[in-house]
Design goal:
The complex is a heterodimer of chains A (about 500) and B (about 290). Chain A has helices at about 25-45, 85-105, 105-110, 115-130, 130-140, 145-170, 175-185, 190-210, 210-220, 220-230, 240-245, 255-265, 285-290, 310-320, 335-340, 350, 355-375, 460-465, and strands spanning about 10-15, 60-65, 70, 75, 235-240, 330, 380-385, 395, 400-410, 415-425, 430-435, 440-445, 445-455, 470-475, 485-490. With about 500 residues, chain A is of the alpha+beta class. Chain A folds into three domains: about 25-230, no CATH class; about 235-345, no CATH class; about 380-490, Immunoglobulins (Immunoglobulin-like, Sandwich), CATH 2.60.40.10. In chain A, strands 7, 8, 9, 11 and 13 form a five-stranded antiparallel sheet that branches. A four-stranded antiparallel sheet of chain A has the order 12-10-14-15, with no helix packed on it. Chain A has a three-stranded antiparallel sheet with strand order 2-3-4, with no helix packed on it. In chain A, β2 and β3 (about 70) form a beta hairpin. In chain A, α1 packs across α4. Chain B is about 45% helix and about 5% strand. In chain B, β1 (about 15-20) and β2 (about 20-25) form a beta hairpin. The longest helix of chain B has 23 residues, at about 100-125.
Chain lengths: ~500, ~290
């Protein structure tokens, strides 16, 4: 048969619509709880107030891009402390490695924003249009007033959620009450409206229409995670050795043969004739609830986000037909082999606590402890001293050799402070500050000030003729008497 | 089934094989196709609206007539307009009292730094350290005065240029035509004695009279110079052209004639005031 005789295959395929059915159970409850907590954190956080004094913002979590400050409750980060953010990102990465190697795609299934918002959108869809069968009917029927009304209601609620989502995002970057007032009175900056608009559009499209396609086609994480899982990773599996051969549920074994015969006569590939049927009654409950539209009985696959809804659905059925639960359940690959061989599975804690996960935990915790220690050791007063190298030194009219230093003083207090600048050195060097007779500079609250500091050596002194003379430049808070110093060098004529 | 079908799923493959691994030939998702069409439509719209198709020297201008040069010019104009008020304040300010308005002073220093790097650094150096014949602006030695007003006047009118009648002007005679070689050597030794440089005491003694007769009218009887005529102080450690014997002989013999343009003719009053404020706070201002 040649290729040309084949019916031409479409190069592009439309999405198969998915209508996840309502389900209840432990994992569904866990997902509801996580949805409430994560969405609550996201929407409420910008509205928490935190008093930092008159000169500083009173928003608990604020990314002040214009002022280059990050406020997180009692923590305030300046740009030169960006390594804390880098550390948190490394922790987030290691945390994902840890959870993936221990629990598979638990992030995807429970906490990923795409999953949470899609779940919320499906909740709205189910509330407006009904459960799975009603939604399928609605899709297939012709457009009429009722269909239009239901669709419009659903889309309107989606848009409202999307606006709230995009709206909440911008509140992290400005004072939330002020910005909300500006947004509704059309006084907010264009960037705020654009950000809200873009995030509204992405939330609406990703949560309402793209859904599982985002995970399957757009997200790189499924591929990375597939490479990170191993035979001890807890993931979702169908106990095929218990469930197969699948077939319709019946009260007694006597009817098995007759049913099997009927099925075979209809051309259905089910149980071989006379075989004893497994626990799977082929009710498709696990398929109907799946938000990714897959059949978990085909085995672990790229699309599966391990959300556990199929487990809930199957357990409901198993309870009804009086069979043991967990025909579909969380398990590791090694357990599959053991269970097939009739051995008891390895306890869950042994799957989770092993060398690989312990190493991730140690690395993760080590960086976390390091960051916390660094946070508490962080001085309130910090300076940087940059010797001016252009030129290295200046000769004054009386032969004095003068060096210039750019001293940056960061005042992290919520009030203006005076800082006294001084010098310690074995050599008799003198210090003065441009524009300040008493070598004291006033630094405004929560800002950095550049002071031009001069250090002078007398014409006949050793320091004037040597190449370099070491010394320390000190800055002292005249209120708290906190000191910060930085070592630097004085350049003489023998360069 | 075609020969490229996968035996397991019955799905066509591309026919390519790498170490036994074959590639499914599955259809692309439709949203991908729609996105692809959308980019084509976007591209057509873009080429109509914006400069796109190359011609010989330029490109098609596009319906919107967008030009990044115009955008830049607009941004520069906007910045100029935004600073118009503070610039007029700076132009009208009494520079000696600029320290009383820290915001204006800070603006003048920042602006002056930019003006300096654009117009002044070529001769005076990027760090204002100067070079042979071009004074350092960092030290406390000034030819024409180091107060902020003196600096402002010097920048505005320049030195020894022929374009500004108010330019600071003076000319040292070329003493090679007036004094003999021996007399020049004597006076150079005297000048070196003024700043305690190694010299011949006998020659210096002879040179003292020559200095009083020929040089003191400008450089002063004590050799400390004069800001009125831009005569350098000869007793200090700073030398514009060099303080060694041979350089001094050359200076006395041929004289020097350093020129600076009148920046008041090229820059705005605010620019000049800013440059003066910047130079004044470099460490040598008086």
């Amino acid at each position: 048969m040649s290729v040309s005789e084949q019916p031409p295959q479409n190069l592009y395929a439309a999405r198969e619509p998915i209508f996840p059915k309502r389900v209840s159970g432990n994992f569904r409850n866990l997902k509801w709880a996580i949805m409430v907590v994560t969405l609550g954190i996201y929407y409420i956080t910008p509205w928490i107030r935190w008093d930092r004094g008159p000169e500083l913002p009173n928003q608990a979590v604020l990314v002040d891009l214009a002022g280059r400050r990050f406020f997180f409750f009692w923590i305030e980060l300046w740009p030169h402390e960006f390594y804390f953010v880098a550390g948190l990102l490394i922790m987030a990465g290691l945390g994902l490695f840890l959870f993936t190697s221990a629990l598979g795609r638990v992030w995807c299934g429970y906490t990923c924003p795409q999953t949470v918002w899609t779940d919320l959108f499906i909740l709205v869809e189910r509330w407006v249009e009904g459960d799975r069968n009603a939604r399928i009917r609605l899709l297939r029927q012709k457009w009429d007033a009722r269909k239009a009304r239901l669709r419009l209601t659903k889309w309107t609620i989606w848009v409202l959620i999307a606006v709230a989502t995009g709206g909440a995002w911008v509140f992290y970057f400005a004072d939330a009450p002020t910005l909300l007032h500006d947004l509704v009175t059309f006084q907010a900056p264009a960037a705020a409206y654009m950000t809200v608009g873009i995030l509204t559009a992405t939330t609406f499209v990703f949560g309402g229409f793209m859904r599982e396609q985002v995970c399957t086609y757009m997200c790189p994480w499924p591929r990375i995670q597939a490479a990170m899982m191993d035979e001890d990773t807890i993931t979702i599996a169908y106990r095929e050795w218990r469930g197969e051969p699948r077939g319709k549920h019946r009260k007694s074994h006597e009817r098995v043969a007759a049913e099997t015969w009927t099925a075979t006569a209809k051309g259905q590939a089910t149980a071989p004739e006379g075989a004893h049927l497994g626990d799977c009654i082929d009710c498709n409950a696990c398929v109907n609830v799946c938000p990714m539209g897959i059949d978990i009985r085909d085995g672990q696959q790229l699309e599966c986000i391990t959300c556990g809804l199929c487990i809930d659905a199957c357990n409901e059925i198993m309870d009804k037909i009086g069979k043991p639960r967990n025909l579909i359940g969380y398990m590791a690959l090694t357990d599959e082999q053991r269970e097939r061989a009739g051995e008891p599975p390895i306890p869950v804690w042994k799957h989770i606590i092993r060398v690989r996960t312990l190493m991730y935990t140690v690395l993760w915790a080590g960086i976390g402890i390091g960051l916390v220690v660094a946070l508490f050791l962080r001085p309130d007063l910090s300076i940087s001293v940059a010797p001016v190298r252009n030129p290295l030194y200046v000769m004054m009219s009386d032969g004095t050799i003068r060096n210039t230093y750019d001293v940056r003083i960061r005042n992290k207090h919520g009030e203006d402070r005076d800082f006294a600048i001084s010098l310690t050195s074995d050599a008799p060097l003198r210090l003065s500050v441009e524009g300040s007779a008493n070598a004291t500079v006033d630094v405004p609250a929560n800002s950095t000030k550049l002071a031009r500091v001069y250090v002078m050596a007398d014409p006949q002194s050793q320091a004037a003729h040597r190449a370099v003379t070491p010394g320390w430049i000190w800055v002292e808070d005249t209120v708290s008497h906190e000191r910060a110093g930085e070592k630097t060098v004085f350049n003489g004529k023998a360069q | 089934m075609s020969k490229h079908d996968d035996e397991f799923e019955g799905v066509p493959t591309t026919g390519h094989e790498w170490d036994g691994i074959r590639e499914y030939d599955k259809p692309m998702p439709r949203w991908w196709l729609l996105t692809f069409y959308a980019t084509i439509i976007w591209a057509i719209g873009f080429t109509i609206l914006y400069p796109a198709w190359p011609r010989v020297l330029t490109a098609t201008p596009g319906v919107l007539k967008f030009s990044s040069r115009q955008v830049l010019q607009q941004e520069l104009d906007n910045a100029e307009a935004a600073n118009a008020v503070i610039n007029s304040e700076l132009a009208a300010a009494d520079l000696t009292k600029i320290g009383e308005t820290p915001e204006l002073q800070q603006y003048a220093i920042s602006k002056g730094a930019a003006v300096f790097r654009t117009w002044c650094a070529q001769c005076h150096g990027s760090g204002a350290q100067g070079a042979k014949g071009f004074p350092s602006l960092l030290d406390d030695d000034w030819l024409w005065g180091g107060t902020i007003q003196d600096i402002d006047y010097t920048v505005t009118h320049g030195i020894r240029n022929e374009t500004d009648p108010d330019a600071r002007f003076s000319q040292m005679p070329a003493f090679g035509e007036i004094l003999s070689g021996e007399e020049i050597d004597d006076v150079v030794n005297y000048v070196m004695s003024l700043s305690n440089e190694p010299h011949d005491a006998d020659k210096a003694k002879a040179g003292a009279t020559i200095f009083a007769d020929n040089c003191a009218s400008c450089h002063g009887e004590d050799g400390k110079g004069s800001h009125d005529v831009g005569a350098p102080n000869l007793t200090d450690a700073v030398w514009l052209y060099g303080g060694d014997h041979d350089t001094l002989v050359q200076t006395v013999t041929n004289a020097r004639f350093g020129v600076m343009p009148a920046w008041g003719q090229r820059l705005s009053k605010a620019d000049v005031a800013a440059a003066a404020t910047y130079v004044h706070q470099l460490g040598g201002g008086q």
